[in-house]
Write a structure and sequence with these properties.
Layout (H helix, E strand, L loop, with lengths): L10 E10 L2 E11 L4 E6 L5 H8 L7 E6 L2 E3 L4 H6 L2 E4 L11 H6 L6 H14 L15 H14 L4 E5 L7 H16 L3 E5 L3 H7 L2 E6 L2 E7 L5 H8 L4 H8 L14 E8 L2 E8 L4 E5 L6 H8 L5 E8 L2 E2 L5 H7 L1 E4 L3 H5 L6 H6 L15 H15 L15 H13 L5 E5 L7 H16 L3 E6 L2 H7 L2 E6 L2 E6 L6 H8 L10
Parallel strand pairs: 3-8, 3-9, 6-7, 7-8, 13-18, 13-19, 16-17, 17-18
Antiparallel strand pairs: 1-2, 1-4, 4-5, 9-10, 11-12, 11-14, 14-15, 19-20
């Protein structure tokens, strides 16, 4: 538990456990933060940080454990209960009403007289040295200004505990420095702050304490002065990482000497990333590692034609496909397995068969919607057999399947078009260990078949297990390149959190 000099922490969580189905997300979390302290909470994607914060914010209830405010156990079954206790979350993406003014956004929900509210707001702004035009529309504000509005919302609600979720992810250097000054002012006012970040350098600039979360437990915590960056990195790594890395090395290497790139990304820029360059070869699995917000998903989404390219080129088999629509990119030979299969990967009320073959509708293979039903069933059954998908009938709705089996259907759909390149975004997100093993086998089959795989993953062990080469993306740029021999969880994690100072060339 985080060390405090005060006998009674402002916020304390004890023995917090939370399970969703068979997945134990939090496995007994102890954490505390005192008035005037900043506890930096660090962890990879899926570590349990969001679930813990949602429990503190009253969005989830814990299965076991308790939350204490000033030493007294409180029941936080809904967000209003947390707000009443003085807990306020400043989200990574500010949630303002865009067509309302700053003033309207801040004062929404209050029952006090407007004159009294405005006076209190002006006092608050003066205390924090905020200079905002209250009559501006929210949609005209920068991200940094929107965050100030969110902070003012919290302070007007007498927040004593602030949760800042990746507050610098979209800020310029000057805006970051301004935010840090604000945090220092909040510390002086006795506000207890949980500061969620992926940027280890920030920990030593702004935090008084640090806590590392991994796989639902806190692996390291205490005053910042007691740790180095290297120690924090070790806290992020699994205990068996060395054994996993060694086991993963027994893997058929790619003979690059006799291959030409199937895809070339040249000085490619878009929203959230810039000047990305790499080659992808047939039969190669290229891992793109990094944390959420680093620009990985934006990169692959832009390659696939979902977002607008701002510069550079994407070359597929010698053809420039930069800026083509998703449909034309698909026709050129690239297919995509999205991270969120529920929103972007499946048609929930359609059958397994229809989902598997939907990418082929209108093609010579299938024809128009529901025209060549027998051929659809043949294709679907092939992937059911190849991927060992557990189904009762192809005509069952895909929503009846487990998460792992749904993911197999989504991958099958991507492969049904016979792509030259398959882009996988977090391919094992939200599936159990057995299904994960099946998905790994499928990915390795793609490699053996000569398909090029571009795999985005925040699971460093996954990249170690599968990738022939890897790049790491940090703040929208490639900051590390690793050959098969160089890929370790330590190296990838360090680079993903910005420890690598210079780009390494394969």
């Amino acid at each position: 538990m985080t060390t405090n000099n005060s006998a009674t922490p402002r916020l304390q969580v004890k023995g917090i456990r939370k399970t969703f189905g068979q997945n134990a997300v939090l496995k007994g979390i102890d954490l505390s933060v005192d008035a005037g302290e900043v506890v930096a909470l660090i962890g990879g994607n899926g570590a349990g940080k969001s679930t813990l914060m949602k429990i503190i914010m009253g969005i989830y209830t814990c299965d076991e454990g308790e939350v204490l405010i000033d030493g007294k156990a409180v029941k936080l079954g809904k967000p209003s209960a947390s707000l009443a206790q003085g807990i306020y979350l400043v989200p990574q993406e500010p949630m303002l009403f865009p067509n309302m003014t700053v003033l309207e956004n801040i004062l929404m929900g209050f029952n006090e007289k407007e004159g009294e509210l405005k006076k209190r707001l002006n006092d608050c702004m003066q205390e924090l040295n905020f200079n905002l035009n209250l009559q501006r529309k929210a949609n005209t504000l920068s991200i940094a200004e929107q965050q100030l509005v969110e902070l003012l919302r919290g302070m007007m609600r007498n927040a004593r505990i602030l949760i800042l979720d990746e507050p610098t992810s979209s800020l310029t250097f000057n805006e970051v420095q301004s935010l840090f000054k604000t945090v220092e002012d909040l510390k002086k006012k006795g506000i207890a702050i949980i500061y969620i970040t992926h940027r280890l350098t920030e920990v030593f600039e702004i935090a008084t304490h640090v806590a590392i979360m991994r796989d639902g437990v806190i692996t390291l915590d205490g005053p910042v002065k007691n740790f180095t960056k290297e120690m924090l990195i070790q806290g992020l790594l699994p205990n068996d990482s060395q054994g996993a890395q060694q086991a993963a090395k027994a893997y058929e290497p790619v003979d690059y000497a006799h291959l030409k790139p199937v895809m070339q990304v040249q000085n490619f820029s878009g929203y959230g990333f810039s000047n990305i360059t790499f080659d992808l070869y047939p039969g190669e699995i290229l891992g793109i590692a990094g944390v959420v917000g680093a620009g990985r998903t934006e990169l692959i989404s832009t390659i696939f034609g979902r977002d607008k390219a701002l510069g550079g080129k994407v070359i597929l088999d010698g053809k420039d496909i930069t800026g083509l629509s998703t449909r034309k990119v698909l026709q050129a030979g690239i297919n995509f397995v999205p991270e969120d299969r529920h929103y972007h990967g499946i048609f929930k009320i359609r059958s397994i068969c229809s989902n598997t073959t939907s990418a082929l509708l209108g093609s010579k293979e299938i024809g128009a919607m529901n025209m060549n039903r027998r051929r659809q069933q043949e294709i679907s059954q092939k992937y059911v057999n190849d991927f060992r998908t557990k189904i009762v009938s192809q005509e069952d709705e895909i929503g009846s399947l487990s998460g792992g089996n749904q993911q197999k259907v989504v991958i099958a759909r991507a492969l049904s078009t016979g792509p030259k390149v398959v882009i996988l975004d977090e391919p094992t997100r939200g599936i159990d260990a057995a299904a994960r093993g099946d998905v790994y086998s499928i990915i390795k089959q793609l490699k053996e078949a000569g398909v090029a795989v571009l795999m985005v993953s925040s699971d460093m062990e996954e990249v170690v297990e599968l990738a022939d080469r890897a790049i790491t993306v940090y703040q929208g740029r490639v900051n590390g390149e690793f050959s098969r021999e160089e890929i370790t969880q330590d190296a990838l994690t360090s680079a993903a959190f910005g420890i690598v100072q210079e780009k390494r060339t394969v």
